[in-house]
Amino acid sequence: MAAHAKFRLRSADDLRAEAGRLGLDIPYNESVSVLLEKAPLAGREIPNRLAVLPMEGADAEAGGAPSEWTRRRYRRYAAGGCGLIWCEATAVRQDGRSNPGQLLLTERTLGGFAKLVDEARAAAKKEWGPGHRPLLVLQLTHSGRFSKPEGTPRPLIIQHNPHLDPLHGLAPDHPLVSDGELGAIRDDFVEAADLAAAAGFDGVDVKACHGYLLAETLAAHSRTGSLYGGPFENRTRLLLETVRLIREEAPGLLVTSRLSATDTVPFPFGFGMDPDEPERTDLAEAKALIGLLVRAGVRFLSLSLGIPYWKPHFGRPFDKPVPGGKVPKEHPLEGVARHLRVAAELQRTSPGTAVVGAGYSWLRAFGPGVGAAMVGAGRTAVVGLGRGALAYPDFAADLVRRGRLDPRKVCTACSLCSYLLRQQKRVGCVVRDPEYKNAEGAALKGPKAR
Ligand SMILES: Cc1cc2nc3c(=O)[nH]c(=O)nc-3n(C[C@H](O)[C@H](O)[C@H](O)COP(=O)(O)O)c2cc1C
């Protein structure tokens, strides 16, 4: 592992040189045209191979409906020209919200979601014409051990975990959620999927990443006497049951899942770790799970890594940690390379599903060139930006119209958006979005903010 360093790349040659120095495989294409062509996805057609990844805004109205701030975000993404908009984590029930500003989809908030979809579709059409129709996917979630529906922790846990329990000061006798309750939560996912279809979304993501409830079931090696713990067949049951039930209940709706291919929490408390070498990543179970998801009808998948509260750099390579956070002992380009490696490996072994890759934002204006090389080599199907899209919602438009990104508009990987989310403040890009900054900048004032 190389020492952590801030971004200093000025050209593609610098990127190649840095990758070479670190011994990393970072492919790069000067032309991004492969990203800009129409592409088949899950039996539909997307206008291009660029995606906005889900990024929670923590700005829902009190009851969980999208607010004007939420809808503004999606209008901007849609006008920005991406082919796939993966809408942020949306709780399927009140006790599963990660913060009081997280979206919540119920009968009562359905109208707000329908408005979000309508406005996003109208914005895309106005900017790009009727032939351009981005795919809209809504991420459904229960935050499990990271639930804070009223702002304070209300952890719902599948198993005790010596690595994660201390993060919330969990007592050793904190009760585990029962199988019956898990069945009820599964049914809430199905109900929310039905509502998402009614709101006009093309698909739903049964979120199984970042240590939240369904991701934790995948890692529940130590849960005994349960349908949802122990052997692989049991640990994957809740996710697969949920996917199958949604497919039955809402046949016209696409179903996908966002997976952390590995949690990076040592075996037996994390998913995707090697039983013989507990701190080593092992993709065998991720491959087997994807095979089962494909058989259950999942035609595209979004891949992520890690648990943001545990080792945030795995998921989001950054220049600066959140204020008060640790600087990791690896170079951010190593984190980017890990994302690329995992996506390529899982895409190679799972040709039946299209992989939406992540981890490109740290690369700034070079992200699309790397993404184009990944897509060109068949190592991933769609290139997603999370923080990069929050900072630069019209990044796809600049690629289409100018063939490159404007370095003055890219994400600076400063982690302030992550910090805002942790503080349960409305999330936005303080660096690149003056309207947000003027309205919300005060949220960042204070001695520890920067
Ligand atoms: C503020 C913030 C909010 C996020 N919200 C979500 C979310 O709702 N669902 C999800 O799956 N990932 C979420 N992520 C992770 C991103 O989707 C993405 O995987 C990550 O930022 C790495 O991609 P990037 O390098 O393009 O930013 C969030 C990340 C940040 C920084």
Describe the structure.
The chain has 450 residues and is of the alpha/beta class. The protein has one domain: Alpha-Beta Barrel (TIM Barrel). It contains 16 helices and eleven strands. The strands form two sheets. Strands 3-4-6-7-8-9-10-11 form an eight-stranded parallel beta barrel, surrounded by six helices. It has a two-stranded antiparallel sheet with strand order 1-2. Strand 3, helix 3 and strand 4 form a beta-alpha-beta unit. Helix 3 packs parallel to helix 4 and helix 5 packs parallel to helix 8. The longest helix is centred in the middle third of the chain and has 21 residues. It is globular, with a radius of gyration of 20 Å. Flavin mononucleotide binds next to strand 4, helix 13 and helix 15.
* Helical residues, percent: 25-40%
CATH superfamily: Aldolase class I
Radius of gyration in whole Å, from Cα? 20 Å
Q: Biggest sheet, in brief?
A: 8 strands, parallel, barrel
CATH class: Alpha Beta
Strand order of the largest sheet: 3-4-6-7-8-9-10-11
Q: Report the CATH architecture.
A: Alpha-Beta Barrel
Rounded to the nearest angstrom, the distance between the terminal CA atoms is 27 Å
Structural class assignment: alpha/beta
- Ligand kinds: flavin mononucleotide
Which residue ranges are poorly predicted, with pLDDT under 50 across at least 5 consecutive positions?
446-450
CATH topology: TIM Barrel
Total helical segments: 16
How do the SSEs run, as a string of H and E? HHEEEHEEHEHEHHHEHEHHEHEHHHH
Which outline best applies?
Answer: globular
Query: Strand tally, please?
Result: 11
Structurally, the number of domains stands at: 1
Strand percentage, roughly?
Answer: 5-15%
Overall mean pLDDT score?
Answer: 96
